[in-house]
Amino acid sequence: MNKALNGKKILIFGGSGFIGSHLVKNLCTHSCQIEVVTRKLNFKSSLFLGNEPGQIKYKHIKDFRQESIDKMVSGSDVVINLIGILYEKKKNTFDFIHSKIPMMIAKACKKKKIRYFLHMSALNINKIKDSKYALSKMKGEQLAKEYFKDTTVVRPGVVFGKGDNFINFFYKLSKFSPVLPLIGTPEIVKKKKFISKIDFTKRVKFQPIYVGDLVNFIIIKCLSKSNTFELAGPMICSFEEIFDIILNSKKKKRFYFPVPFFIATSLAFVLEMLPNPLLTRDQIKLLKKDNISNQGLQTLRKEIKNPTSIESVIDTYI
User: Fold this and answer.
1) Rounded to whole angstroms, how far apart are CA atoms 235 and 229?
2) End-to-end Cα spacing for the chain
3) Exposed (0-12), middle (13-18) or buried (19+): which is 168, by Cβ within 10 Å?
4) I want to staple 228 with a disulfide (CB 3.0 to 4.6 A). Which of 153, 173, 206, 264 is the partner?
5) In this structure, are residues 318 and 163 in contact, taking their beta carbons and an 8 Å threshold?
6) Residue 193, pLDDT score
7) Nearest Cα residue to 80 out of 222, 228, 225, 231
8) What is the number of alpha carbons within 13 Å of residue 118 lying toward its C-beta?
């Protein structure tokens, strides 16, 4: 528990989402006032459990303009930005959501003399140069720090836990599909003279972090200034190993089908036409870089002594 939060007013952008819901719930164990910014009228989440009446308040924002954000942050002690998207829509582009909104929040924090601003980004975006998601996230970090120099940035790896879109997606897929895709396997490397090298041992690697560990880290570090924290969980695993954990939990068997990146990219091109695409070409670009960080695990362990693995909690939420 961070006793320094007692009496503080904490404003959360993105507080109604997956990570935000868990953050709000954990913050309720502290003697602080929590304000959740939402675009939904009369929004009330069943996931939020206030420790005392009136601890949680909802602030409706019609659209993200500088004047609106200035008004939202006024009077806050801590501002946290968790807003993010996995794919673009006409009104919600990566540039606007990941770059311009953090910039406007940072400007508002400086204008209203907010002491602490924590912005959530993503792991390894500084190492990926061809993904619009990664580039927009990196730009958002840079703009936030430019306009509010004391910004603290948290870069988590893939996040799992109750309500996630990662483990739950593959679990739902396994319920009706006899086949699960091993995206990125085998790796096909083009060589000179039209000869390709095929590596059947290549696997996309993840180091998932438990949402409870992530939000507890945020609570501990939200009163810090001018820091960037990479975070990763205790287990490095591939798609195949993640599928094994899910299927073993439900005592199911499925076939695993290798899907090289060039086939996955073609498939994503078709899936992008759906209103809520299951896979995009930009996400394929992200998968080409392993989502792992040894430093991220070390950083997490400094504050969370026994980080949670997928295996230890998967039965509690799928």
Assistant:
1) 18
2) 28
3) middle
4) 153
5) no
6) 63
7) 222
8) 23
Amino acid identity, position 290? D
Q: What is the pLDDT of residue 203?
A: 94
Q: What pLDDT shows up at residue 48?
A: 57
What ranges do the domains of the chain cover? 3-163+207-235+292-307, 167-204+238-287
Q: What CATH architecture does domain 3-163+207-235+292-307 belong to?
A: 3-Layer(aba) Sandwich (3.40)
Which pLDDT score is estimated for 40?
Answer: 75
The count of other CB atoms within 10 Å of the CB of residue 296 is 22
| 10-residue stretch averages of pLDDT, the chain, 318 residues long | 89 95 94 91 60 83 96 98 95 96 98 98 97 98 98 98 96 96 90 74 95 98 97 98 97 96 96 93 97 98 97 95
* Cis ω before 186 (30° cut-off from 0): yes
pLDDT recorded at residue 220 = 97
The pairing of strands 159-160 and 209-210 is parallel
Q: Within 13 Å, how many C-alpha atoms sit on residue 128's CB side?
A: 25
Maximum separation of any 2 CA atoms in the chain, in Å: 71
SS3 246: helix
User: What pLDDT shows up at residue 49?
Assistant: 57
Whether 281 and 264 have beta carbons less than 8 Å apart is answered as no
The amino acid at 287 = L
Angstrom distance (rounded) from CA 29 to CA 51: 6
CA 130 to centroid of chain Cα atoms:
19
Cα 153 to Cα 70, 244, 252: the distances in Å are 20, 33, 40
Handedness of CA 249, 255, 258, 263 (dihedral sign): negative
Placement of tokens 């003697």 in the chain: 31
